[in-house]
Amino acid sequence: MNILIINSGSSSIKYQLLEMPSAQVICTGMIERIGSTKSISTFKSKDYRIENISKITNHKEGIERITALLLDSEKGVLYSTEEVDAIGHRVVHGGSEFTETTLIDNEVKNKIKLFSPLAPLHNPANLVGIEMAEKIFNSAKQIAVFDTAFHGTVPVKAKKYAIPNEFYNEKGIQGYGFHGTSHKYVSEIATEYLEKQNAKLISIHLGNGCSITAIKDGKSIDHSMGFAPSNGLVMGTRSGDIDHAIIFYMVNTLGYSLDEVNELLNKKSGMLGLTGFNDLRDIESEASKGNTSCILALEMNAYRIKKYIGAYIAALNGLDAIIFTAGIGENSSLMRQLVCKDMDYFNIHLDDAKNDLRSSTIREVNSLDSKVKILVIPTNEELEIAKQVFNLLT
Ligand code: AMP
């Protein structure tokens, strides 16, 4: 069965065509910087690697570009769109409605639309991907895999906010949790690696968006992102945890509009707001040259993660392993080192030499005397989505 995965972010689309159940990747690629005159489209198959810089105005054009790459008569991998049996769409916000992978129909699309105000950077882009795919790949089944689904097991005491009950009972205001596909994928690999079904795990997803999840018996029991993917850790452009009184102060005293504050907290804050750089590679490089804002931002970022680790050890009443994953978690030995420093009270000890090694597979970077394992596990949301689509259809 050929399954095409479409993973739309706010300004990017990752895609992958896989044959299931063998999980053989037929091609993979990405459209980055959508909305810019210099959008980058990449395509990688067994025989070809293409990189192209051109103007891609919106997600609709992005999907058209992906289709053209797949069907390219010389370098493509498909003769016809009918060769695709199913399309797996990553959908960021499924509210409390969707806790399972779901076949898409009009009702499902309407609900995804309904949740758009809760994930304004993502859900509208996910919907465009679905609607374009329905038109172009009209013989394929369209399936939604929700980022929120894995967190359906978080108990009420952890996901409910301490505001009047009607907001939880009638208006759906609660913590939903995100990056579920990634946390599920890496935690399953860790469980297998540890050979312990009831392992107590803390999964730290550090990419452009960052989140941390406490996992017990394979189930999410608490998570740092909340009602929208904005709470919790310091991210590339998002502030993470912030006292809500600051929002009122910005509006009522400093004269910002609510839209401006929303834009500021989601797109101009986090590491970008602290340093002027969004990409951690630039921040690390500046820090190594003595840039004090970058040094402080790295320390703030790691400190926030440490605090969540402490809280989740309490929630789990123990800990078998910490997992680092995604762009920063997998690649930044410095961030792992800052997070794991001075954690001996918890029996967390990093091995600096192992931490500096690079690998594209799972690796253990703790010292031999560390009771808690520190694992670096490359995430693969596309494979996880493909597995879920395949399971649903078979
Ligand atoms: P993701 O959202 O998982 O694709 O992660 C993207 C982020 O990973 C980028 O913005 C970078 O900040 C970070 N990243 C990627 N490679 C490295 C690296 N070698 N060192 C540090 N950070 C990295």
UniProtKB/TrEMBL annotation:
Pathway assigned to this chain's UniProt record: Metabolic intermediate biosynthesis; acetyl-CoA biosynthesis; acetyl-CoA from acetate: step 1/2
Keywords: ATP-binding, Cytoplasm, Kinase, Magnesium, Metal-binding, Nucleotide-binding, Transferase
Pfam families: Acetate_kinase
Origin superkingdom: Bacteria
Transmembrane segments: none
EC number, UniProt record: 2.7.2.1
Binding of ATP, residues: 14, 205-209, 279-281, 327-331
Gene3D superfamilies per UniProt: 3.30.420.40
Cofactor annotation remark: Mg(2+). Can also accept Mn(2+).
List of residues binding Mg(2+): 7, 381
One annotated GO biological process: acetyl-CoA biosynthetic process
SUPFAM superfamilies: Actin-like ATPase domain
Gene Ontology molecular function terms on file: acetate kinase activity; ATP binding; magnesium ion binding
Enzyme superclass (EC): transferase
Marked site: Transition state stabilizer: 179, 238
Protein name per the record: Acetate kinase
Species of provenance: Maribacter orientalis
Name of the coding gene: ackA
